[in-house]
Amino acid sequence: MRELRDDLRIASEQLAFFENEAQEKEMRALVAETADAALEHHEAQRNLEAIQKHHKHLISTIQEYEMRQDQLLDKLGN
Predict the structure, then answer these.
(1) Orientation angle between helical segments 35-77 and 2-32, nearest 10 degrees
(2) Buried-state track 12-48, b at ≥16 Cβ within 10 A, e below 16
(3) Which end of the chain has fewer surrounding CB within 10 Å, N or C?
């Protein structure tokens, strides 16, 4: 569980970075109106979507583990 929380912390930091990068690349693509700028924006957006998916997966996994842990603790208490 501790390792998952550490992974989530790192993924959250990466998510913030990739969000900023995607926003910057989008602005550059709009201003430059070149194929290269559009490609860079597309790649940045794809990276952002990948880290968002990973971040959501970590949150979901932690929630599942916490729920399972609570169930086991309830069984111990009975």
Answers:
(1) 160
(2) eebbeebeebbeebbebbeeeeeeebbebbeebbebb
(3) C
What 3-state class would DSSP assign to 55? helix
Please check whether residue 27 is in contact with residue 40, taking contact to mean a CB–CB distance below 8 angstroms.
Answer: no
SS3 call for 78: coil
Token pair for 55: 């971040």
pLDDT for 78 beyond 80: no
CB 42 within 8 A of CB 22: no
What is d(CA 16, CA 22) in angstroms, rounded to the nearest whole number?
Answer: 10
CA-based R_g, the chain, Å: 19
Q: How far apart are CA 8 and CA 1, in angstroms?
A: 10
